[in-house]
Amino acid sequence: RHARAPPSPAPPRGMRLRPSLLLLAALATVGAVKVSPPAGGFRKPLKGTGRVSAATPPAPRAGLATHWGVLGVVTVLANAIGRLAPIAYEPLKAGGLGPVQWAAYAGAVAGMAYVEGYKAFQCKFSPLVVSRALTLGPDGGRCTPLRAALAPFYSMGLFHATKKRKIVSWAVSTTVLGVVAAVKRLAYPWRSIVDAGVVAGLSWGLTSLLVIYARALGGTPPRASPELPSQ
C-alpha cells in the first residue's frame, strides 16, 4: 500500500487594510485578500503546446509606508493646486484681458499641461514616485523607521538614491521654490496666466500619479527604475 501524501498547506490569507490617518496627511490604505504566488511567479502553459511559459515575477506588495509615500506626495500636489487655483481663475471671473493676454492664458494652460503634466509628471516623476514607494513595502527590502516616517521625501528621491537622482531632485525642488517666489512678484494678469499653466500641469500630474499608483496596487507596477544606491 502506498502512503498518502500529506495535504498541502492552505495558502496564507492577505490582510485587508482600512483607511487610516498617518502623520501629516490623510493616509488611505487599500488592500485586498490575495493568494501569495509561488516563488518566481506562476507558470502558464503556452497555448497550443505542451510547454510552459517563463515565470512572470510577482508584483511587489505595498505596505503602510508605500501608501504614506505616494499619498503624501498627492497631498502636497493637491495643496499646491488648491492655493494656486483661485489666482488662476481670476481672469475667468473678472475678465478684462486683451486678445494677446487671452492667447497667453490658453498657451500657458496647454503648454504646461503637456510639458509639466505629461512629459515631466506622467512620463518621469509619477512612475519614479510609485516605483520608489514600492521599495518600502514587504517585498522591497528598503524600509527603515526613518524612511517610513519620511516616505514622501524618500519617494521623490531626495535621499537614499543614486547621486544623480539626488542632484536632480534637489535641483528641481530648489528651482521650483525660486520660480514660485518670482511669480509672486508679477502683476495681474500675468501672475494669473502663469499660475493657470502651473495648475493645469499639476492637475495632470496628480491624476497620472493616482492612476499609476492604482495600477500598481492592481498588480501592474511601473517599469521605472527606483534609482537606489547599491547599498
Secondary-structure blueprint of this entry?
Layout (H helix, E strand, L loop, with lengths): L19 E3 L2 E3 L36 H25 L1 H5 L4 H36 L10 H5 L1 H5 L7 H21 L6 H28 L14
Antiparallel strand pairs: 1-2
Helix pairs in contact: 1-3, 1-7, 3-7
Fold and architecture overview:
- With 231 residues, the protein is mostly helical.
- It contains 7 helices and 2 strands, in the order ββααααααα.
- The protein has helices at 64-88, 90-94, 99-134, 145-149, 151-155, 163-183, 190-217, and strands at residues 20-22, 25-27.
- Strands 1-2 form a two-stranded antiparallel ribbon.
- α1 (64-88) packs antiparallel against α3, α1 packs antiparallel against α7 and α3 runs parallel beside α7.
- The longest helix is centred in the middle third of the chain and has 36 residues, at 99-134.
- The chain is elongated and about 55 Å long.
- Cα shape: elongated
How does the major sheet shape up?
A: 2 strands, antiparallel
Q: Which percent range fits the helix content? A: 40-55%
Element string (H = helix, E = strand)? EEHHHHHHH
Uncertain segments:
5-46
Structural class: mainly alpha
End-to-end span in angstroms? Answer: 55 Å
Mean pLDDT score: 80
Order of adjacent strands in the largest pleated sheet = 1-2
